[in-house]
Amino acid sequence: MASSAYDILGQKLFDGTTKRIYSMIDQPGLICIYRKDNYRSAGKTFSIPGSRRSSVDSSIRFNQQQLQSLHSNPNLFIEIPGKGALTTSITTCVYEILRETSIPTFYVAPHPQPDMFIARKCTMIPILWIVRRLANETYMKRNPGIANGHRFVPPIVEIYHKRHPVVYRRLTISNIDENLESSRESLIDDSDSDSDECLSSIWSYEQLLNAHFDIEDLKITQTEIEYMYETCCTIFDILEHIWMVKKSCQLIDLKIEFGITTTMPKEIVVASTFDTETWHILRPMERTTTSGVDLIQENLIWINSTLRDILDLNNKISLTTKLDPRRRSFAQKQISTLDDADTDEEEHPVNCIIPENDRIDTQKDTSFNQYKTSYAPSTTSRCIVVCSSSADIEHGQKIKITLNELYNIQCDIRLCSIYKSTKSLLKFLSNYVYEHCRPTIFVTLGNVNNGLAMCLSSNSPYPVIHCSLMNADQPNNLFDINSYLTSDTAMFSVVFTLPSAIQNVIQILAMNDWRLWTKQRGKRLKNYLDLLVADQQLATISSTSITQQANKANTGILTNK
């Protein structure tokens, strides 16, 4: 690590085999996690019948010498160049995705050092949640009769109790005494604590409920268990959707852990680190001849570049600086040999059929660049609100503010009338139809009989939603069901409130926008959790009032006696 990385670092809290944790100066509620390049395989395999490749980390094979060394010394870890920086980048990308859903996590921000990130200090809950979509060999051994690759609909959730919860609590204690660390405890870490030796048998829901965990003065009751369960299902749903929609990959299973923050207000947050051992991903690809460490490194690079591509981030991690020259491939050696060749030779002109004067230099020709930027297709979503009168502009502004501020959707407000000028409406429509690649939705306001929705849906390929605002004070704005049921006008959707129109717009655009989809999924989780907490508060108030009434009744009886 560079010396600049220590500018904000405080005391070293934990030094394990795969990570090192520091406190932060003047930030008692934050920690800095440094990921090492060590790796130890769990020794398990995973295979799915078919032409697709197995999970990105399940097909890892080591040579005979590596296997013998691992079996002779189970605490031996293999060093993979660049693993720490890659796992940190993967973890950062996943938490940036979850930030779109507003799910509470311990992740705060990346660190200038590529193999470190800043997180909230928390005490880990000694429970590992595993969400499975497909059955693997480990699951088949515990459940005979289940076919390999069986699809669970909905995905199943397994609960594991960790045998070494003290280590996870020690990670967050600011006044930890490093001299008291035993050699065994220093070897237990997030990466190897998921193996069989650190996990007991699968717990049932009732076992977890009757464990009565009390961590950081927060009791794990049924409400907290339901919160973690639904959060696990939501995270798996989001990541599965993104992998499938963006990269045509299947998320097989996912491991999730939670922690409780040490500072007020105390809350349960997602506190997992993501690498090849955290999830299994089935992706279409050709067979590869790489194995062992090279395959692990290849999978880490692929996951990292894929996630950064989904987030539209530039890959700033330079693996060439961390790669050992002995591990470079033959192609990389050839490239380095070519780079070291003599540069004094003059470059010979390349023969070309096209005359040199007829070529177009896209770098120097500014007119071509202007054309390219002006007519480049945009794929960002947008909504066009069409008002039939000036009285509807106020409602259109409400839709625009909601879509812009909450969902970052471009929204334009236009004023048109099919009765005053049909030609102007068609000309207005032509300004939007030519962008074929851009997801667009039209929302019309006013009476359904104004003809705007019918004209737009008949002359454009985009979906049209008509919002007919019901108002008892103005009978003329009431919805005419007879006119809507005719065959000519029943080509668009009709809603009666602004929130309904906004919800329909978001759900349609979310089909092509994973950010909108994740926000909607996070909103569903929030609605469920709010209802769960409100129901618990109501039950607590009811039980308290019943107890008080019973005490009053008993007091009265005793007084009478």
TrEMBL record:
Pathway(s) the chain acts in: Purine metabolism; IMP biosynthesis via de novo pathway; 5-amino-1-(5-phospho-D-ribosyl)imidazole-4-carboxylate from 5-amino-1-(5-phospho-D-ribosyl)imidazole (carboxylase route): step 1/1; Purine metabolism; IMP biosynthesis via de novo pathway; 5-amino-1-(5-phospho-D-ribosyl)imidazole-4-carboxamide from 5-amino-1-(5-phospho-D-ribosyl)imidazole-4-carboxylate: step 1/2
One Pfam family per UniProt: SAICAR_synt
Domain PurE: 384-519
One annotated GO biological process: 'de novo' IMP biosynthetic process
Xref: SUPFAM superfamilies: N5-CAIR mutase (phosphoribosylaminoimidazole carboxylase, PurE) (SSF52255), SAICAR synthase-like (SSF56104)
Superkingdom as given in the UniProt entry: Eukaryota
Molecular-function GO term, any one: ATP binding
InterPro entries: PurE_dom (IPR000031), SAICAR_synt/ADE2_N (IPR028923), SAICAR_synthetase (IPR050089)
Keywords: ATP-binding, Ligase, Nucleotide-binding, Purine biosynthesis
Residue span(s) of domain SAICAR synthetase/ADE2 N-terminal: 79-164, 217-278
Entry's Gene Ontology cellular component terms: cytosol
Protein name as annotated: Phosphoribosylaminoimidazole carboxylase
Organism encoding this protein: Adineta ricciae
